[in-house]
């Protein structure tokens, strides 16, 4: 089973890119972020024509997450994180697909730091930590995938000294990510490629992609049951080189 995460940076504007990647990469499950589309503007017909069932949590102009499943409809199990009934941002979705529980997330950016946005990011992280503590011990594979907006360590960022004050590399945020690993989750890509400098995001400006001046902020975290089945992990950098593409590349794992 191939499970991917992809921040599409606007699903309708980049629909040709998404459909091309689905055709070439043929993932079984996909977590999408930054749909930037209200609920009624999700391109369901085009996704279904490509062979995927879908559930989605849209939001006008910003945010938005979806889960796609090849040849079937994901069975939604949760929409939004518990812990704050006033939070209306579309950032979390869970579904069961072929015996695997998949959570798709778009964690807040948090900039500028300090400030209200950074405080919201830390509160959202606390809620995610609580939810993942409930899921870690499931007797089934669980994969929580998405744009975490966190570079866990210096290997995950080009020129880390330039990011010391950024909300994606702040000590509080890296510590929050480390607490997820302390629960027993594994970072799939880093587990299989412990010493490689691998990026998943490159800014559009200053030739960042061409210079490989990137960040690794898109992650798959696996519970112990899923971790035992981990067979592969990688980044589809080729999609980042396409015309009118997202500033993220798709990231994938395979489970036996």
Automatic annotation (TrEMBL):
Under the heading SUPFAM superfamilies, the entry gives: DNase I-like
Q: Which CDD domains match?
A: ExoIII-like_AP-endo (cd09086)
Q: List the EC numbers from the record.
A: 3.1.11.2
Q: Where is the Endonuclease/exonuclease/phosphatase domain?
A: 4-248
One Pfam family, short name: Exo_endo_phos
The family note in this entry says: Belongs to the DNA repair enzymes AP/ExoA family.
What this protein is called in its record is Exodeoxyribonuclease III
Mind giving the lineage of the organism this protein is from?
Bacteria, Pseudomonadati, Pseudomonadota, Alphaproteobacteria, Sphingomonadales
